[in-house]
From TrEMBL:
Residues 224-276 form the PAC domain. PANTHER family: SENSOR HISTIDINE KINASE, TWO-COMPONENT SENSOR PPRA. Its EC number is 2.7.13.3. Keywords: ATP-binding, Nucleotide-binding, Phosphoprotein. It catalyses: ATP + protein L-histidine = ADP + protein N-phospho-L-histidine. It holds the Pfam family Response_reg. This is histidine kinase. GO terms for molecular function: ATP binding. InterPro entries: CheY-like_superfamily (IPR011006), HATPase_C_sf (IPR036890), HATPase_dom (IPR003594), His_kinase_dom (IPR005467), HisK_dim/P_dom (IPR003661), HisK_dim/P_sf (IPR036097), PAS (IPR000014), PAS-assoc_C (IPR000700). Residues 571-682 form the Response regulatory domain. It comes from the Bacteria. It is an enzyme of class 2 (transferase).
């Protein structure tokens, strides 16, 4: 235990005769203790206080004196205090042999007698013992004060929370409860309340739960927690929440439950009301659900007809642009076919002229290449081509579709272009942008039936967040016409889906809404300005990007004339249901030095694979009856898991499952493209084989 601090806990010295006070004070000072000398008994009694550690007195100072004030002070000590007295006596024997000393011992209680003369060490030891004992009393006082404070806080908490306290001795079932606990069971605060009274105040259904919970806590040590229905003496029904913790007495080998109780009648009533409301709500929801299901069944054929109509309108919108191009496309294809047919006809008649034959063949190839490019353009407009967002130079996009725009607007409309080269890049899909521009151009053309001027410009602008867009740099495509324009009401509805001012069958009303959706998708905006009789101005804003255009792989796009054919020789299974295409492809493969095995269907190709014949590569068309090229590829992989497959198709959008490591070759293709794909497939197969 921590040693007492003599300097902070003074010792009273009352030795009125001789040099005892001087000696005691000197010894206490050497021991480091603080001494207070009293002049007489009255002064001594007045100086006694709870803060004094002990007192040193001589028996002659107290003999024949009135000890009643001193005895009253000793008797009035708090329960934690037992004040120590050290009595310096003459050699007259033990206290029980001296009536006066016996009177002192009975009056003072905690008294230690030291005969004079004494050794200083004996005196200091007695004082130290007294001080340590007093220090323990001070610690007991501190603990008692803390306990009282805790009890006060607990009482405050119980009162504030409207909680009652209870304690049940599990060996005798003696119950101690607070007035609040009695009130929760409907009993007056002063009335007796036993464990039997408690059980009698619990509903019959909950009494077994009460006893079972007590047994469980006693057996396992778990906390006691129950919500009980209580019956008050006046017959009313209430609810109580009882909680307690098991406390064991290791000395007496007993256990008791100590806990709190609260009245939850109002909460239960609220829960019951809420449950009733929930039941009513569930009933209404069930009723409403049944009504909705009936309504749903009635109108189901109708959320489906609308869906089909909307999907049809979307497809019409996609094809409307192609319809606008039909005349020009037909004219271009006729010209291309004419060039190809004429060149091939002349080549058949004059095969001996090698120089002339080379020119004719070259002309036919260029015509075919132009036709392939036009086909890819149509596929893009019809959404049959892969779409990807990448750094795009918009002036280049517009410049590349100039011929298409001129054919679309006709001879009565003058086209003006302002396409500077120094415009920064933006993230966009070129095909989407082309479709958006073509939509705007067709709308402008229709707004100028008598002719006019259509201008398309691209510039870059800076915004500070004051026009609904985040602050930053943007590229802007501006399409303006001198046509009919729109009034304020029409302009407000222009971007709404299916809204159109065109005649029935001339438009779907999806053009501007699709462009608006594209702008939002690319983190940009669509701006419309128009006035009846003064034309329309449309601005497509797209944010500038710091990304750079990736260098294209030229291996698949160009091959120098006369280049060496790939040296890898292989046995190739060629599958195509079109005999004309199969024959020309077989010739190309044989010209490259490969062995070609032909099959005109997927089933025939699988039979060849099952026969165990050596096959290094499968080259199959995608669009075939009964079994597509993709289905054939998947079936072939089951027979030969490492077999490389090239899927030739004129469409870039393939069904789910087409991305399982199968190479694709876009039709129409040239020999150098076929060479590159075969070399790539065989090299990869041999690297992993």
């Amino acid at each position: 235990m921590k040693a007492p601090d003599f300097n902070r806990c003074p010792t009273l010295v009352f030795t009125p005769i001789g040099r005892d006070a001087v000696v005691a004070t000197a010894l206490l000072k050497e021991a480091g203790a603080l001494a207070l000398v009293c002049r007489d008994l009255e002064h001594f009694v007045a100086m006694l206080d709870e803060g004094i550690c002990c007192a040193i007195v001589t028996d002659e100072g107290l003999r024949n004196a009135d000890l009643k004030p001193l005895g009253n002070w000793v008797s009035a000590q708090p329960t934690w205090s037992d004040f120590p007295f050290i009595i310096l006596t003459q050699r007259r024997g033990a206290p029980d042999q001296d009536p006066e000393l016996s009177r002192l011992a009975a009056t003072l209680g905690n008294a230690t007698f030291i005969e004079r003369p004494f050794h200083p060490r004996t005196f200091v030891s007695a004082v130290g013992t007294a001080l340590r004992g007093r220090a323990r009393q001070f610690e007991a006082r501190l603990r008692i004060d803390e306990l009282r404070e805790s009890e006060a806080r607990l009482h405050t908490a119980l009162t504030a929370g409207k909680l009652g306290s209870w304690e049940l001795d599990l060996s005798t079932f003696a119950l101690v409860v607070s007035p609040a606990c009695r009130a929760i069971f409907g009993h007056a605060s002063g009335a007796p309340f036993t464990y039997s009274d408690l059980l009698a105040g619990i509903s019959r259904d909950d009494r077994p739960r009460m006893t079972d919970a007590i047994d469980c806590s006693l057996a396992t040590g778990c906390d006691f927690a129950l919500e009980l229905c209580t019956l008050w003496p006046d017959g009313t029904v209430h609810w109580a929440d009882m909680r307690a913790r098991l406390v064991r007495d290791g000395i007496r080998k007993t256990a008791r439950l100590v806990g709190v109780i609260s009245d939850i009648t109002m909460r239960k009533a609220a829960e019951d009301s809420l449950q009733q409301a929930n039941d009513m709500l569930e009933a209404r929801v069930a009723q409403r659900t049944a009504e909705l299901e009936r309504s749903h069944r009635l109108v189901l054929d109708e959320m489906r007809q609308r869906e089909r109509a909307e999907e049809l309108l979307r497809q019409v919108q996609k094809m409307e642009m192609i319809g606008q191009l039909t005349g020009g496309v037909a004219h271009d294809f006729n010209n291309l076919l004419m060039a190809i047919m004429a060149n091939l006809e002349l080549l058949r008649k004059q095969p001996q002229d090698a120089i002339r034959a080379a020119r004719l063949i070259d002309g036919a190839l260029r015509g075919a290449q132009r036709g392939a490019a036009l086909t890819q353009r149509l596929l893009a407009f019809a959404r049959q081509q892969d779409l990807k967002v990448e750094p795009t130079h918009l002036p280049t996009v517009v410049r590349g579709m100039t011929d298409l725009l001129e054919r679309s607007i006709g001879p009565r409309v003058a086209l003006e272009l302002k396409l500077p080269e120094g415009i920064p890049l933006t993230l966009a899909d070129g095909n989407q942008v082309e479709l958006a521009i073509l939509n705007l151009v067709v709308n402008a053309r229709d707004a100028m039936p008598e002719g006019g001027t259509l201008s398309i410009a691209v510039d870059d602008v800076q915004t500070w967040g004051d026009n609904g867009l985040p602050a930053g740099e943007y590229v802007r495509i501006i399409v303006a016409d001198t046509g009919k324009g729109m009034d304020a009401d029409t302009l407000a509805k222009a971007t709404e889906p299916f809204f159109t001012t065109k005649e029935l069958g001339k438009g779907t009303g999806l053009g501007l809404s699709m462009i608006h959706g594209l702008a939002l998708q690319l983190n940009g905006a669509l701006r419309l300005e128009s006035e009846a009789g003064r034309g329309t101005r449309v601005e497509l804003w797209l944010p500038v990007t710091s990304q750079r255009v990736t260098t294209p792989d030229l291996q698949h796009d160009a091959q120098p004339e006369g280049s060496v054919i790939d040296p890898i020789q292989a046995s190739i299974l060629l599958v195509d249901d079109d005999a004309l295409i199969a024959t020309s492809t077989a010739y190309l493969l044989q010209d490259m030095g490969h062995e070609v095995i032909e099959a005109d269907s997927g089933a025939a190709a699988l039979e060849i694979l099952k026969a165990g014949r050596r096959i290094d590569l499968l080259l199959t068309d995608y669009s075939m009856p009964r079994m597509t090229g993709l289905e054939l590829a998947l079936a072939a992989r089951e027979l030969r898991p490492t077999l490389p497959v090239i899927l030739a198709t004129g469409y870039a959008e393939l069904p789910q499952g087409a991305d399982v490591g199968i190479q694709r070759l876009r039709k129409p293709y040239q020999q150098h493209q076929l060479v590159a794909e075969i070399a790539k497939a065989l090299t990869k197969a041999r690297a992993f084989g």
